[in-house]
Structures are given as C-alpha cells and as structure tokens.
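Risk register update: the risk of archive-format incompatibility is retired. Evidence:
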Amino acid sequence: MDKERTQLKAKFLYLISLVEDKDQDSVIEVLESTEDLLPDGKLKDKIQKALRRRKKYYDKADNAISDILDTPLNDNDRKIILDCLLRIRKIIEKSQTTLWDQIMEWFNNATGKN
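Archived output:
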C-alpha cells in the first residue's frame, strides 16, 4: 500500500472509531454508497455486501474501507473518497453535541431565538 492509501486508511479508521453506536448503520451506508460510486466489479460489490451483513460494525467498516481503497486512485476517485470522509465526519459531529449545546438549543427554541 502506498503512502496516500495508508494515510486515507488511517483517516477512515480514526473516524470510524469515533462513531457512536446509534450512528454505525449510517456510516456503513455512507461507506457502501461510496463503494458503489467507485469503478469496480458490480457483482463483486454485491457479493461483498452480502458477506458483510453478518459481521460486526468494525469488520464491516474495515472491509468497506479496504474495498474503497483497492480501486486505482485518480482525481475523481480522490474527490469521492474525500467526500465520504466529510460525510462521516458530519455524522460524528452531529451526534457529539454536548449537554450545554442541547440546553442552549432548548432555550433558543423556547424563546424563539433560532
């Protein structure tokens, strides 16, 4: 694996480790939709998805990430992969609101300061 793929895999693995339990299915969907966008054998993708169904979250994510990074990286593929990383990051940030953020949101909703 070259340096760029290693760096991308490290970013993916770091992000999936931050995902809360309730958001794991959303992250798997993002990874699988990204995998569908990359040029690869469609039959191979369907077989891999079927095999992935019975696995646990980290195994599913690791398999999907490996499949994503197995494709040759051109500029378009890099853009798709970076978009995937951003979508996962947004899922993480959305679920990591603090109690104080929640209280402020309730206050702003109650006072009409949205």
